[in-house]
Amino acid sequence: MPGCRFAIVETTSLMTISAIMVAAGTGARVGNKANKLLLPLGGRPVLAWSLEAICRGASLHEIVLVTRAEMFPDADRILRTTPAIPPKVSVVSGGDERQDSVYQGLQNADQDADIILIHDGARPLVTKSIVTETVAAAERVGAAVAATPLSDTVKSVDSDRLVEHTLDRQKLWTVQTPQVFRREIIVEAHERSRKDGYVATDDAALVERLGFPVQLVNSRDPNLKITVPEDFAVAESILRSRGELSFSPCRVGFGYDVHRFTHERPLVLGGVHIEGSPGLEGHSDADALLHAVCDALLGAAGKRDIGYHFPNTDTELAGISSILLLEKTAEILACAGYQANNVDCTVIAEQPRLAEYVPAMVSNIADAVGIPPHQVSVKATTSEGLGFLGKAEGIACHAVVSLLPKGELRVPNQML
């Protein structure tokens, strides 16, 4: 290829890959006050889908998330709760333009990385195969981008929209992300463009300008960029057709907890202090009812269990009120794009009698998870003298919950 200054090489499995996730736009065309990357798509933030997709498609050494400063707390929570994220992660501020943001990402990425993968946070539908194929092509050629051949006829027009001529669509492709490069190529391209004051609409154009070859990789599957409100419905439909999203938005979880009695502390159930009864053994306040609810909520959202998030090895959690743990659990759900819809609990205890405390338990649970009290039920029963519960050796609690996507998920549909 004339002007080519980079040799095509064989790929190696030893190349280290740094990913730059560009998430610094305002998302103004979506029309929502919240950043579009934080809006739920099928119950999860758009950004979470995009992050998980590139992580599953490439063995990443690190991720540099470039976003707006006000998004840092949300970005941190999404990174902590998204599967397959590599251990090395950094969140940095972007620039005024996309090109500036990518440059900031390059400045903060590992200088020893072999490959730089650049992806738009607003492209949550990119598939594992497209990421893998684009990385492989970049390792061979030096630069590769996901793209789709045009199927429509394209015409060039003048300022009055009068047709000047028809373009040969056989040579026309629409370019997307990921865009993947050998590090030295993309760094040189950005440095030269900054020096010359050259601005392009994608990173590949900066590389082309220097005469490097760029390989297009056919992204056969839809790789939609979330731009307008209607895109949310389209993206959800595509995810469902792939089997990545349930046709029912409701998710159900079950939780169970049991603690033995101890005379060394007071009894707390549902956040209510109950007088005249021995307490329960445990690392926190041993509120078995709230622990069962936490487990049910986490399970419904696919976020593991209470022991994972609040381990009994954490000294800061010693004696902590389980109301605080339940509130934190609700935050984990919110970050994953879910909210509690219904909570149904059963307490199994031979003693003490709990009927008079149930309304306060219901109120505490409702307040902690952010739903009305009529969507919470607490029931108390005994085991009719059977087993260790019947011998009044402890208390067991069961909880069943249902979750729905957060209210914002409906925003795009309401705006249609």
Describe this structure in words.
The chain is α/β, with parallel strands linked by helices and 416 residues long. It has two domains: 17-157 and 169-241, Spore Coat Polysaccharide Biosynthesis Protein SpsA, Chain A; 251-410, 2-C-methyl-D-erythritol 2,4-cyclodiphosphate synthase (60s Ribosomal Protein L30, Chain: A). It contains 13 helices and 16 strands. α5 (183-196) packs across α6 (203-209), α8 packs parallel to α10 and α10 (322-335) runs parallel beside α11 (358-369). The protein is elongated, with a radius of gyration of 27 Å. Mean pLDDT is 90; it is low at 1-12 and 408-416.
Gist of the model:
With 416 residues, the protein is of the alpha/beta class. It has helices spanning 46-57, 72-81, 98-108, 128-141, 183-196, 203-209, 230-241, 288-300, 306-309, 322-335, 358-369, 387-390, 411-414, and strands at 17-23, 40-41, 44-45, 62-67, 88-93, 115-120, 143-149, 155-157, 163-166, 173-182, 215-218, 251-269, 272-280, 338-348, 376-381, 394-405. It folds into 2 domains: 17-157 and 169-241, Spore Coat Polysaccharide Biosynthesis Protein SpsA, Chain A (Alpha-Beta Complex), CATH 3.90.550; 251-410, 2-C-methyl-D-erythritol 2,4-cyclodiphosphate synthase (60s Ribosomal Protein L30, Chain: A, 2-Layer Sandwich).
